[in-house]
Amino acid sequence: MTSQIAKLLANYNRSMNEQMFEAAKKLNSVELAADRGAFFGSIIGTLNHIAVADTIWLHRFAQHSGEFPALAGLSSFERPTSLRQIIASDLLSLETYRQGLDSLIDLWVSELTCEHLAFTLTYANMAGVKSSKNLGAVLQHFFNHQTHHRGQASTLLFQAGIDVGITDLIAYIPDDNI
Question: Has the keyword Metal-binding been applied to this entry (predicted)?
Answer without folding.
Answer: yes
